[in-house]
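Technical annex, item 7. During the second reporting period the consortium partners agreed on a shared format for inverse folding records so that results from different sites could be compared directly. Each record opens with the tokenized structure and is followed by the designed sequence. A conforming record, contributed by the partner at site C, is shown below for reference.
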């Protein structure tokens, strides 16, 4: 059992640590850690390199979280008669433990990647991809909250934080196990903390908005 958790944690971390944003930008001759907000997430890649590379990073970052959680659901059974591998999806407390470990490991890997000197993004896309597998109804509600917030405020950061904050509320309302409520709350807090600089700019009214011409954008600090 302990070995299974260790494997899930290592696989999840290494998946999350894959520096997709850095690699996509590097393929375009750009060091993403030196431009824009100096963040390797999809938002900064899109701002610097355009929608194509940004959307690619968004999809791949989300896939990292989804695969990390999906891998944790696989069951390997070894018997005298042979071995079998199956995918057992369940939301019972016992069966949630490994997927939660996989999700948390992927998020930590993305934000503190061993491949980039333990620098990384804010884990919004990676966390969202993981929750699509772990908690699909909650993630659906979170996407709705994100969409409404972005439509009203025109800021990706506010939408990301509100979408993340909606997850524990959804888990409570849908009466999911405390372990799922707890990881939703922990991930939401982590995402908000990773947006500290964005919160300061939101309060100051200088946060970058969708559709604002590049020349009108205020200088972005590292976040």
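Designed sequence (site C submission):
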């Amino acid at each position: 059992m302990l070995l299974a958790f260790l494997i899930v944690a290592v696989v999840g971390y290494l998946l999350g640590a894959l520096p997709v944003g850095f690699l996509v930008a590097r393929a375009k001759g750009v060091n993403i850690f030196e431009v824009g907000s100096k963040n390797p997430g999809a938002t900064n890649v899109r701002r610097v390199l355009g929608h194509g590379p940004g959307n690619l990073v968004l999809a791949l970052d989300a896939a990292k979280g989804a695969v990390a959680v999906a891998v944790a659901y696989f069951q390997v059974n070894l018997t005298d008669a042979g071995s079998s591998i199956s995918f057992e999806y369940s939301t019972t407390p016992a069966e949630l433990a490994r997927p939660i470990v996989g999700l948390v490991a992927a998020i930590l890997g993305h934000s503190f990647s061993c491949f980039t000197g333990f620098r990384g993004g804010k884990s919004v896309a990676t966390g969202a991809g993981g929750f699509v597998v772990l908690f699909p109804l909650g993630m659906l509600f979170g996407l709705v909250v994100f969409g409404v917030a972005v439509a009203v405020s025109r800021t990706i950061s506010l939408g990301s934080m509100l979408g993340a904050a909606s997850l524990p509320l959804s888990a409570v309302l849908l009466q999911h196990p405390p372990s799922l409520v707890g990881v939703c709350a922990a991930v939401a807090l982590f995402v908000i903390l990773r947006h500290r600089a964005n919160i300061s700019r939101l309060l100051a009214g200088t946060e970058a908005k969708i559709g604002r011409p590049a020349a009108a954008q205020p200088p972005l600090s590292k976040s």
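Residues 201 and 207 are 5 Å apart (CA to CA). The radius of gyration is 18 Å. All partners now use this format for quarterly exchanges.
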